[in-house]
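Tip: read the tokens left to right.
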């Protein structure tokens, strides 16, 4: 008999949870079409070089960047609605038992270049993991939503509760990571997801993806961050590539999104908005100064020293 999937309430012990049928077929198909379109645009005109687009790329960040939806505003609200859907948010709350914020939305896909097995790792989240009220779940959670059938995510259940064993260390860390794509990881579990299923996992467990050119993969990933971790990282590091999403300030960015999803994203906006605005203010100050200098014909930087 097949063992039942652990639910979100067990994630603290099991490292992961699966919620079958998080999204219905129609929603999943529309999300898949939106993500396909965004991926095509990203390959042609990526809005960020992290990670660089190219034949070995297997994920992209910020699927919700409005530039990917300029001619498709309904797609953006549909996507945001799904990412902030009450069922999804409730399952995260059950798993974390702690206040959290939206962090980012990514898309994982099969590469077009060479096939690769991913490398085993625990995410490097440093001190952020130590400030949470529930240490077993670290700084937040990754939630993968299968847009097509997938068995591309593997993890070692329970490995978040301890340091690497000697055998795991030999694979993940030793010899400068030379063996970290090994297919001999003891206790590894390959998650089998159908379209619309969601897998939640903690960044603290050993995990990896599979990136085979001939196995179609379209997996939307929502990342959330505990508020305590977000506060810690803002104090120590300021804005980073993940939370620097000033497009949330655009008037009408949340138009058409359900009130429940809006309130999920509003917490993110309330937290980071003042930092995005401070950065914008700086940019306006410098760009208006630059314009004034150009208009006056004076350029103190290019002029030879007097
Ligand atoms: O699903 C994948 O391909 C890997 C995801 C991963 O490594 C991560 O979220 O840190």
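Filled-in amino acids:
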């Amino acid at each position: 008999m097949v063992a039942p999937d652990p639910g979100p309430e067990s994630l603290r012990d099991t490292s992961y949870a699966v919620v079958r049928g998080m999204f219905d077929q129609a929603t999943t198909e529309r999300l898949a079409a939106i993500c396909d379109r965004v991926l095509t645009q990203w390959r042609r005109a990526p809005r960020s070089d992290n990670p660089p687009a190219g034949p070995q790329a297997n994920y992209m960040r910020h699927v919700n960047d409005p530039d990917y939806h300029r001619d498709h505003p309904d797609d953006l609200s549909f996507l945001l609605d799904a990412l902030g859907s009450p069922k999804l948010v409730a399952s995260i709350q059950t798993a974390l038992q702690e206040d959290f914020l939206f962090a980012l939305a990514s898309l994982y896909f099969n590469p077009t270049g060479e096939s690769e097995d991913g490398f085993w790792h625990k995410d490097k989240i440093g001190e952020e993991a130590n400030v949470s009220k529930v240490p077993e779940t670290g700084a937040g959670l990754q939630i993968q939503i299968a847009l097509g059938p997938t068995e591309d995510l593997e993890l070692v259940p329970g490995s978040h509760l301890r340091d690497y064993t000697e055998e795991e260390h030999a694979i993940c860390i030793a010899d400068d990571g030379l063996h970290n794509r090994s297919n001999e990881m003891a206790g590894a579990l390959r998650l089998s997801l159908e379209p619309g299923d969601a897998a939640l996992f903690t960044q603290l467990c050993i995990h990896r993806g599979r990136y085979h050119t001939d196995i179609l993969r379209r997996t939307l990933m929502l990342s959330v961050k505990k508020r305590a971790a977000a506060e810690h990282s803002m104090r120590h590091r300021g804005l980073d590539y993940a939370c620097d999403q000033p497009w949330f300030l655009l008037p009408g960015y949340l138009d058409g999104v359900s009130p429940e999803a809006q309130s999920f994203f509003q917490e993110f906006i309330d937290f980071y908005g003042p930092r995005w605005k401070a950065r914008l203010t700086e940019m306006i100050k410098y760009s208006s100064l630059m314009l004034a200098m150009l208009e006056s014909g004076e350029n103190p930087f290019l002029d030879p020293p007097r």
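Residues 137 and 202 are 6 Å apart (CA to CA). The beta strands are 16-19, 59-61, 100-109, 116-117, 140-146, 150-155, 189-193, 198-201, 207-211, 218-226.
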